[in-house]
Design brief:
CATH topology of the largest domain: Rossmann fold
Number of helices: 14
Bound molecules: adenosine monophosphate, zinc ion
Number of domains: 3
CATH class of the largest domain: Alpha Beta
Structural class: alpha/beta
């Protein structure tokens, strides 16, 4: 099945064709670790996780690289302001390394709570300053840089393709129209590759370089680390939409100025999570974290489920009411799946294995070759699911396929459950953990249940049925299974 993705470069849906058969090399811009990730940031990582899982589902081997920014990201993307990590360290009376280490750990804990798969490579900026210096030297050798006021700048005028991703037209952009005028820059779009002097003299993290002791600009880290681990030309690069006009635009300029050829084939961007029409931002102080949600009694997977309800290219408005409804929706889904699972296990536990993508070459993947005995109807739902996720990750529709399958009483439980597990490989909702809750019942009810069991032992089926009906009236369903008597609330 071919996968179609919306490429920000060119703004159109395109069939995904990897550089190398079967393999996907993808880079996802990671966090700046000066604070907890807010749920807006996490929406972007959930989208990227769905992308990776979808590619894996269809049989691609994915190498995903994610950077961790622990130096060089200023409070303003256009080289203004202060280094975020260093500022946070000063505020909290810690070292920059302590701050970065603490928030990096917190970040990956959040990802695991959200069931976001860990990238194949996680790389910290401070561990790769040498690679950045090497890349800057290549850019410099090719004539794309100038020194000014102690810093080394990228000269966008030398790179005619500058701004193609963002559809910026340089000649239309007056100095100061979007980016503040910086006296040291020839053009407001020029950006720092290496700082030796800046507004903040007491930078605590500095390295020696051919341009003097200093530290790298933010954008160079992603170009350098992605090329180190994925090569000079790779498949996919993603991030949130805010990265289009500056960060990714500058990353492209740096990489292509160094190599002289096309860098990345597909650019994917996730839309923002917004809070009452404003964007959620760490700096605005209106951010909600996973801990906030846990403290309020939500499971992080409620938030994942909430995010899956919207297409990644649509803005998503957050409210606690909307999260409540996602929470209820997920609870209902898990309860139904628990019942299906129980039913399936009754019929034949050994047959329940996720009916998933076969291991054939991507593109030749065909539905319907799954677990023996998988019922045709269940497969039809899976095919629809696959068609939806392969169409630019249409997860809301894929989620509807899951619901339709779950609700279809005519599909036999073993097939149903194995298709549910297959769908979960993409959705990542841990659907396989759905289990009937052990419920506590009153003494009276438990006496009735015992009495019914005794009646059955005595082969007094009339009395057993009477009690079953009494229990039903009180909202308790009793079922006789090979594992014994089970009951649940209606
Ligand atoms: P940062 O840690 O600020 O570099 O951001 C990490 C990731 O979150 C980037 O991919 C951003 O584009 C993304 N991001 C930032 N704010 C939001 C938001 N409100 N909604 C969705 N993604 C966001
Ligand atoms: Zn980046």
């Amino acid at each position: 099945m071919s996968i179609k993705l919306f490429n920000t470069m060119g703004r159109q849906i395109q069939e995904f064709i990897p550089v190398e058969d079967n393999k996907v090399r993808m880079y996802t811009c990671g966090p700046t670790v000066y604070n907890y990730a807010h749920i807006g940031n996490l929406r972007t990582y959930i989208f990227e996780d769905i992308l990776r899982r979808t590619l894996e589902y269809f049989g691609y081997q994915v190498k995903q690289v994610m950077n961790v920014t622990d130096v060089g990201h200023l409070t303003d993307d256009a080289d203004e302001g202060e280094d975020k990590v260093i500022r946070s360290a000063k505020e909290k009376g810690k070292t920059a390394r302590e701050i970065a280490g603490f928030y990096m750990e917190a970040f990956f804990k959040d990802l695991s709570l959200l069931n976001v798969e860990k990238p194949s490579v996680v790389c910290k900026a401070t561990d790769h300053v040498d690679d950045m210096i090497k890349l800057i030297r290549r850019i410099e050798k090719n004539g794309f840089t100038y020194a000014s006021g102690g810093n080394l700048y990228f000269d966008v005028a030398k790179f005619p393709d500058y701004g193609r991703l963002a559809m910026l037209r340089l000649e239309d952009l007056k100095a100061g129209a979007r980016v503040k005028i910086d006296e040291q820059k020839k053009s407001p779009h020029d950006f720092v590759l290496w700082f030796t002097k800046s507004k903040f003299e007491h930078q605590s993290m500095m390295w020696d370089s051919p341009w003097g002791r200093g530290y790298p600009g933010w954008h160079i880290e992603c170009s350098a680390m992605s090329m180190k681990y994925l090569g000079d030309h790779f498949d996919i690069h993603c991030g949130g939409i805010d990265h289009i006009p500056v960060h990714h635009t500058n990353e492209i300029a740096q990489a292509e100025a160094a190599t002289g050829k096309k860098w990345v084939n597909y650019w994917l961007h996730g839309e923002f999570l917004v809070l009452s029409k404003e964007k959620m931002a760490k700096s605005a102080g209106n951010f909600i974290t996973i801990s906030t949600l846990i403290d309020k009694g939500y499971d992080p997977l409620d938030y994942r489920y909430f995010c899956l309800g919207a297409h990644y290219r649509s803005q998503l408005q957050f409210s606690f009411e909307a999260l409540d409804s996602a929470k209820n929706g997920r609870a209902g889904l898990m309860e139904r799946i628990a019942r299906i699972r129980e039913e399936a296990e009754k019929t034949g536990a050994e047959k329940v294995s996720p009916y998933a993508a076969d291991t054939g070459a991507p593109g030749t993947y065909a539905s319907g070759k799954g677990a023996p005995g998988t019922d045709d109807k269940a497969i039809r739902y899976l095919k629809s699911f696959e068609a939806h996720i392969s169409q630019d990750l249409n997860v809301p529709k894929a989620l509807a396929d899951l619901w339709n399958l779950v609700k279809d009483g005519s599909v036999e439980a073993v097939s149903k459950y194995s298709v549910i597990l297959a769908m979960d490989k993409v959705l990542g909702l841990r659907l396989g953990t759905a289990q009937m809750k052990k419920i506590s019942v009153s003494k009276e009810i438990s006496n009735l249940i015992d009495e019914r069991e005794k009646a059955r032992e005595d082969k007094d089926y009339k009395r057993a049925d009477e009690i079953r009906n009494i229990l039903k009236e009180r909202g308790i369903i009793v079922e006789d299974t090979p594992q014994g008597v089970k009951w649940r609330k209606v």
